[in-house]
From TrEMBL:
GO MF annotations, alphabetized: ATP binding; fucokinase activity
Pfam families reported for this sequence: GHMP_kinases_N
S-adenosyl-L-methionine keyword on record: no
Designated name of the protein: L-fucose kinase
Domain GHMP kinase N-terminal: 123-195
InterPro entries: GHMP_Kinase-Related, GHMP_kinase_N_dom, Ribosomal_Su5_D2-typ_SF
E.C. number(s) listed in UniProt: 2.7.1.52
Function per UniProt: Takes part in the salvage pathway for reutilization of fucose from the degradation of oligosaccharides.
SUPFAM superfamilies in the record: Ribosomal protein S5 domain 2-like (SSF54211)
BP GO annotations: GDP-L-fucose salvage
Alphabetical UniProt keywords: ATP-binding, Kinase, Nucleotide-binding, Transferase
Gene name of the encoded protein: FLJ00241
Length: 286
């Protein structure tokens, strides 16, 4: 991260993102599949009803505390939490705990050291002369399958880092979200944050290696093709939600058991992504 001037106290830093839709390759980005096979996913950044539905804002406050808020819109916060001591942050690794993702963001951004001997107030006063307020919002239903939580983590980290006087590039942010989701214990891969943090149509790829490194290639499509896509994309909400972690555990058990159908499917994901990307470049008819 590059050090830059701290924003003035009380000055909001806002980050907003689109949702994402994946056309091919999902699951190949997920550890350990990505480590063992390599991954490739073709995804689109999409507005919902013409809006970027996911966002975060952060600012410095004089109190040596963390003020957290979560809501369905930027101007409507429904859950508010105040962290005055390190004990208030200890449930950062329990995804269902109120504000867990926001707490994990402070830890992953290096603003708070949860196992330090220094009290929370001391840590904040020493480095920043005060605390932080962080709000996140999503206009999409929880568990909608549009990559919301990973993109939300990206916006939270981006806003927090800038409020702390640091600028983080998008590539670093993609990897930081991977780390945050391991800390949060939800797990998951990199397709969601690539889809929502990078603009347009792109292919994300990672080689079968550790440490994992994600590279993103923008896919150029013929004139009129984006309009054709827009004309054909319709979001239908079924009302059914699922926690990605539970789905992830089921798939990974099948992978570890080396069930032939699952292994065969995983191998074909990357190949199909490259075929799909070529279809986009050619402007193949939907």
């Amino acid at each position: 991260a590059e050090q830059v001037e701290l924003p003035g106290p009380g000055q909001w830093v806002v980050a907003e993102c689109p949702a994402r839709v994946d056309f091919s390759g999902g699951w190949s980005d997920t550890p350990p599949l990505a480590y063992e096979l390599g991954g490739a996913v073709l995804g689109l950044a999409v507005r919902v009803d013409g809006r970027r539905p996911i966002g975060a804002r952060a600012r410095r406050i004089p109190e040596p505390e963390l003020w957290l808020a979560v809501g369905p819109r930027q101007d409507e916060m429904t859950v508010k939490i105040v962290c005055r001591c390190l004990a208030d942050l200890r449930d950062y690794c329990q995804p269902h705990a109120p504000g867990a993702l926001l707490k994990a963001a402070f830890i992953c951004a290096g603003i708070v050291h949860v196992h330090s001997e220094l009290q929370l107030s001391e840590q904040l006063l020493r480095t920043f002369g005060g605390g932080f307020e962080l709000h996140t919002w999503s206009e999409l239903p929880h568990g909608s399958g549009l990559g919301t939580s990973s993109i939300l983590a990206g916006t939270a980290l981006a806003a927090l880092q800038r409020a702390a006087g640091r600028v983080v590039g998008t590539e670093a942010l993609i990897h930081a979200v991977l780390h945050l989701e391991q800390v949060l214990t939800t797990g998951g891969g990199w397709q969601d944050q690539v889809g929502g943090l990078m603009p347009g149509i792109k292919v994300g790829r990672s080689r079968a290696q550790l440490p994992l490194k994600v590279e993103v290639e923008e896919v150029t499509v013929p004139e009129g093709f984006v309009q054709k896509l827009n004309d054909h994309l319709l979001l239908v909400y079924t009302g059914k939600t699922r926690l990605a972690r539970n789905l992830l555990q089921d798939v990974l058990r099948s992978w570890y058991a080396r069930l032939p159908a699952v292994v065969q499917n995983a191998h074909s994901l990357v190949r199909q992504t490259e075929e799909c990307a070529e279809g986009f470049r050619q402007g193949s008819h939907i």
